[in-house]
Amino acid sequence: MTDTEARPTYKYVGTRPIRHDGLDKVTGKARFAADLNMTGQLRAAITRSPHAHARIVSIDTSAAEAMPGVKAVVTGADFPEIDIADAIHDEAVNNIARDEVLYNGHAVAAVAATTLAQARAAAAAVKVEYEELPAILSIDEAIADGAPLANPTTRTLFTGDTEPSNFASIGQFERGDVEAGFAAADVIVEREFTTVPVHQGYIEPHACVADCGQDGKASIWASSQGHFAVRSKTAAILGWSTDRIKVTPAEIGGGFGGKTTIYLEPIAVRLSQKAGRPVKLAMTREEVLRATGPAPASKISLKIGATNDGELTTLAGTMYYSNGSTKGFSALTGAMSVASYKFPNLELHAIGTVDNTPKSAAYRAPSAPQAAFAVETLVDEIAQQLGMDPIELRLRNAVVEGDPTAMGMPHPKIGFIETLEAIKSSDHYNSPVPEGAGRGFATGFWFNIGEQSSATVNLNEDGTATVITGSPDIGGSRASMALMAAEELGLDVHRITPIVADTESVGFTDITEGSRATFATGMAVVNACRELIEKMKERAAVIRGVDVDQVAWIGGAAVIEGPASEGNEPLTIADITAQAKMTGGPLTATASLNAAGAGPSFAAHLADVKVDEETGQVTILRYTTAQDAGTAIHPAYVEGQMQGGSAQGIGWALNEEYIFDASGEMENASFLDYRMPVASDLPMIETIIVEVPNPSHPYGVRGVGETGIVPPIPTLANAIAAATGVRMTDLPMSPPNVLKKINEK
Amino acid sequence: MISRTHVHCTVNGDEVDFLADDATSLLDALRDELGLTGAKEGCATGDCGACSILVDGAVNCACLMFAAEAEGHEITTVEGIADGDHLHPLQQVFLEEAALQCGICTPGVLVSAKALLDHNPNPTEAEIRYALAGNLCRCTGYDKIIHAVQEAAVQLNGASK
C-alpha cells in the first residue's frame, strides 16, 4: 500500500558502508578545532560578567596588559558599534558586551598570552566597574506589569513597535471558530505546562584558531555547523568585507543547533590582529554552560476539545517562550510546530520574552519539544477520557497531504499515518506492558528546511572521484553524499572521497541546520553528478567517434547504442578519465541551488517506564521510535539520529535543567551537576525507519536530524501517568518533582 | 619563573621525556607537549570521560591527573590501542556498526571499552553500560556503542580460542 513498496532498487543508497571519515575518528587522528596548533600561536581567555544585568561603568585593562606573557587585550570598544536594527546586532553584542552586560557569563573582555595559564590570569585581572541593574530571570518576571527592561535594545518582532520591551515577539495563528468548537465539544482538557532551559550538551566546547595577517586578512579554523556563516557573521561583527576572511571547518564535536551561532571568532581575530600572531580560543565547559545557547524556557497554557467519537475539534492557548537576553523567534517556531492534527478550530498566541539569562540558541527542532509536551499530553488525556487507544485517536485525526499546519500552509506529502501504523504494528506495542510499569505514547513533527548548497564533483585521472561540499558533517553526512554520488555515477562508494571544503574552495553553503544537509546538499551533489554524466557521454562519443545521442549511461559506464554499438565496448569512468586530456580536459562539475520542497518528518515514540513511588525515580524499561526518513540514504546513521534525538529528549524530560540562584548565576555549570543521560541511564533504543519518499528530492530524502527529540518528553510524561496516575506538567520530571506530584495525589 | 618538573614515562609503548609545570594536567601535557590530541577536553573536571586514558592498564581521566603523576607509569591513549596498522577489534567494530557520530567522545569510549574487555572478556549489557557510564556521548544514545562493544567481545573471544 505504501510508497515504500514502490521504491526503486538502489545499489548504494540504503546500504551501510563504513564512513569515510571514520578511521580518523577511531584512531584519534581527526582534527577538531581545539586540536589545531599553529607556529607562534597564543592562547586566549575571556573575562565574563559576574552579574546577570549591569551597566559597564568602566573597564581598566592596564593591569592585565602588564602581566607576564600578555600580547593583546580587547573589549567591546575594539569592535564597531552596530545599529540595533542590523540583523547582526544581537549576536555581535552577545559575542562581547558593549554598554550593558545582559546575563551572568556575558563576555566583556579577552586576553591573548603566551600560555593559557597566563591568559586566564590576565583575564581575571581585567578590572570592570559595574553598576548593577535589576535582573529579569523568568518568563513571569519578564511579562509582569511594570517590569524593568532586561535589554534596552530589544524591540518586539512582528509588531512594528519602536519602544524597548521585554516582549521579543508577538504572533498569533487562527482558523475556524474556537468558541463554537469548545461549545460543541464533548470532552475538554486544559492544563498549563512549564519547561526550564536545557543545553544542547555537545561534548566539544566551542573553539577556534584565528590567524590575522598584516594584509588585513584572517584565516579561521572553527568548530561550527556552518563555516560560511562563521565568515559572514565574523565579518559583520568586525565591520569587514567578507573576502578578508577564510574559514576552514574543523571536525565538529556535536552541535545540535548550538553551533549555528558564533561566540569566539570575532574576538580571536581581533586578538590575533592586535598581537600579530595566531590565537587559539576555546571555552571551558563552565563557559559553555554559562554563556552559550540553551533551549528556551517555556510556559504553555493549552486547551483541547474533542467529540465523543474521537474527533479533535479545537485547540486554543498561549505559548510563552523565553529567548534569553535578546529578541528571537522561539515562541513563533513553537506555535508553528503544532501541525500534527487537523483541528478545524485553532487559536494560538505565541509570545516570546526577553530576560537576563543566556541568549537562547537553536536546539534540534527548536521549540517543538516544549509545544509537543503540551499538545501530546492533552491528546493522551482525551484518549484516556474517551477510552480510546492513543494511536487510534491519533490515526483518526492525523494530518495528511493538504491539511494545514498551525500557520495555515498545507502539508506537502507526509508520512504521519504510515509512521503511526508502523509503531502500531511494532513488537513493542504488541507486547504486554511489564508488571508494575506504565506505557506512554506520543508523536512529534518537524518541518525541515532546504536553503542554499553548493557541491563540486571532480573525477580523478584514475576514475576515482572527489565530492566537495560546504556542509559541515555533524553525524555522518559525508558518507551520505558519497552514497548518492555512487548511485548516480555507478561508482563504488569507496572510490569516492567526500570532503567538506573551506570557504574559498567550494561555493556558498548555508549552515548544517534544519535537517537539511543530506536533503539539500545531497541534491547539489546529485545535480553535479548528473552534469558529469552528460560530460562523460560527450567524451565517450568523441572517443568512439559517434554522435552523443547514441551514448547512454548504464551501470556506471558509457554504452554505445544503436548501429554503432557493435564492437564498441562500454567505457567505464576510468576509461573516460584516462583519456580526458585528449577529449577536452579535466572532468569536473559544480552545482548550486536554493533547495525547495523540504519534506517534513514525523516520529512516534513508545516507552515503558517504572516509577519508584518512594523516590520518584523513573526507569525506562523499553523505548521504541518510528520515524519517517523519506528515504534512508545510510540507514545506520538514520537510526543514530533517531536514537540520539531520543536520548537527548529523555535527558530533557527526566533530568536536565539550568538552575539559577536569585542573582542569576547558574548554580550547576558543570557536567557533574548538569546531569545528561549516561550509558547506564538508558535502555537500547529500538528503531523503525519509515520510508515515505519526499517527491522533491531525487532519492526521496526528508532529513532526519531533528524530529527525534520532539516526542520523548510527552512520551515519558504519558508513561508516568499510566504508571502512577499522576500528570506531570513541569520539567524536568526528576525524582524530587515526580515524588512531589505523587505525594500530592 | 615557574619551576618545571622533568617527567619520564611510557606513552603508547614509547619512552618519553618532557617538562611540565606543576599545575599542568596530564591531558594538557599529552596534547600540547607530546602532540597526542586523541584524548579530548570536554569538561576538565572528570565528568565526561572524553580524555580517558589507561594508566598501567586502568582507566583514568587525564584531565584529573597532574602531568608529573605520569612519572614511571605506562600511559595508553587512543593513538596506542591499534596494533600497528591493524585496528583493535573495538575500532573496527565501531566503524562497521556506526557506533560514532561526531566522534569527539569516541577516543575516550574506545579506551574505556578496551579496559573493560581487558579485564572482563564477557561483560553483560549492564556491565558495559556501567563501565561506560563515565563516558558521555551526546550523539548516539549509546545504543550502537553498546552493541559494538558486545560484538567486539565476541570477536576477541573467538580470536583467543
Gist of the model:
Chain A has 745 residues and is α+β, with helices and mostly antiparallel strands. Chain A is 28% helix and 24% strand.
Task: Give a written overview of the molecule.
The complex is a heterodimer of chains A (745) and B (161). With 745 residues, chain A is α+β, with helices and mostly antiparallel strands. Chain A folds into 3 domains: 40-133 and 206-282, Aldehyde Oxidoreductase, domain 3 (Alpha-Beta Complex), CATH 3.90.1170.50; 298-448 and 599-744, Aldehyde oxidase/xanthine dehydrogenase, molybdopterin binding domain (Aldehyde Oxidoreductase, domain 4); 451-595, Aldehyde Oxidoreductase, domain 4 (2-Layer Sandwich). Chain A is built from 21 helices and 28 strands. In chain A, the strands form 7 sheets. A 7-stranded mixed beta sheet of chain A has the order 3-5-1-13-10-11-12. In chain A, strand 16 (312-322), helix 11 and strand 17 (345-353) form a beta-alpha-beta unit. The radius of gyration of chain A is 27 Å and the shape is globular. Chain B is an alpha+beta fold. Chain B has 2 domains: 4-80, Beta-grasp domain (Ubiquitin-like (UB roll)), CATH 3.10.20.30; 89-156, DNA polymerase, domain 1 (Orthogonal Bundle), CATH 1.10.150. Chain B has 5 helices and 5 strands. A 5-stranded mixed beta sheet of chain B has the order 2-1-5-3-4, sandwiched between helices. In chain B, helix 2 packs across helix 5 (143-160). The longest helix of chain B has 18 residues, at 143-160. The termini of chain B are far apart. At the A-B interface, helix 2 and helix 19 of A face helix 1, helix 2, helix 3, helix 4 and helix 5 of B.
Describe the structure using short key phrases.
heterodimer, A: 745 residues, alpha+beta, Aldehyde Oxidoreductase, domain 3, Aldehyde Oxidoreductase, domain 4, 3 domains, 5-stranded mixed β-sheet, 21 helices, 24% strand, globular, B: 161 residues, Ubiquitin-like (UB roll), DNA polymerase, domain 1, 5 strands
